[in-house]
User: Fold this.
Amino acid sequence: MGLIQLSPRALFQRVGSETVILDLEKGTYFELNEMGTLMLEWMASLPDRESVIAKVLNQFEVSQDIVAEDLEALIQGLSRNGLLVSPA
Assistant:
């Protein structure tokens, strides 16, 4: 079970290295860059923030603080827009 689960109202489509998320209720599109796309995929499959951060740090040369901030911003942004539900 992953850290997050997309809401049924969110249609997730990967386009190359990026992702488009369509909010089916509001008709609003959201775009994620390559890093946001990878974080979203890993959040859906990994159990906690620490695991996602470790995965990013293993793949990219980036500061742990930056990754943690970006991850939190992504989670908050998706939540604020109603695109996440609590995993079952």
User: Anything to note?
Assistant: The chain is about 45% helix and 25% strand.
